[in-house]
Amino acid sequence: MQRDVHLKPEDLLKSLQFKEGDFGEIALVSGQVQRAKMCLDYLEKPVKNFTFLGYTFWTGVYKGKRITVGNGGFYAPDSAFVTELLCGAGVEVLVRLGSCGALREDISIGDFIVADKVLRGDGATRYYVDDDFLPSVDREITKHLVDIFSSAGKVHTGGIWTTDALFRETKEIVNSYIEKGAIAVDMVTSPFVTVASLYKRKTAIVLVVSDNLITGELGFTEFKLFQAQKKMVKTAFKLIEKINV
Fold first, then answer.
1. Active site residue 211
2. pLDDT digits (tens, 9 = 90+) for 145-191
């Protein structure tokens, strides 16, 4: 291959009939498509932008602001891919509505975690940055997240560790990241924030707790997790009122 790169985000977007300005300046990005669809209830006249490889995005209006919502990946590689598409499409603020496993005994299923630190344990971001690169969330938006979500439920603030290997969350590995400040683990946050940082975009992360690695509790199918996800989506739209773009 003689070209510098095979494919740029703009190339793929063009092939999807995407036009400049189709997306809003703020995006709410979920892993699960059903969580993204919950967002549609809050948008005026949402329009589907595209569906591609299982990812679907819509753009509508909320209190005068154009907002894009969609499912942006379950794992590090597809999260990096979709985040780069969003940045290439002109999104300025990306807010992740995700789920995670807790790394503290006092954190319960259905609690909310707001990330103030990102710990890279994934492989995808090594294609983007050096190993010592420290991605960071936007401090002002993160503060708003903490304040707003405190009225919706129990909120914990701390580091999020991203891993690629769900069934290799061993005691030795988990404890090493707890010592570095992680209070939760997921498979998305690192590439989401890292890629957006390279594009100089603002990010913020709020996650609902689905399980607890310390107590061994699994809440993936519990109704209180579903209720917490609905509350997370509803509360996230209150955050939008605080964001200036």
1. yes
2. 999 999 999 999 999 999 999 999 999 999 999 999 999 999 999 99
Main-chain phi, psi angles of 211, to 5 degrees = -160, 170
Amino acid letter for position 99: S
Strand 182-186 and strand 65-71: the pairing is unpaired
Element (H, E) at 50: strand 44-52
Q: Measured between alpha carbons, how far is residue 185 from residues 26, 100, 142, 174 in Å?
A: 25, 6, 18, 9
Domains and CATH numbers, the chain: 9-240 (3.40.50.1580)
The stretches of 155-199 forming alpha helices (DSSP H) are 171-179, 189-198
Secondary structure class of 216 (helix, strand, coil): coil
- Which residue in 78, 111, 138, 211 is the catalytic one? 211
Tell me the pLDDT band of 206, cut-offs 50, 70 and 90: very high
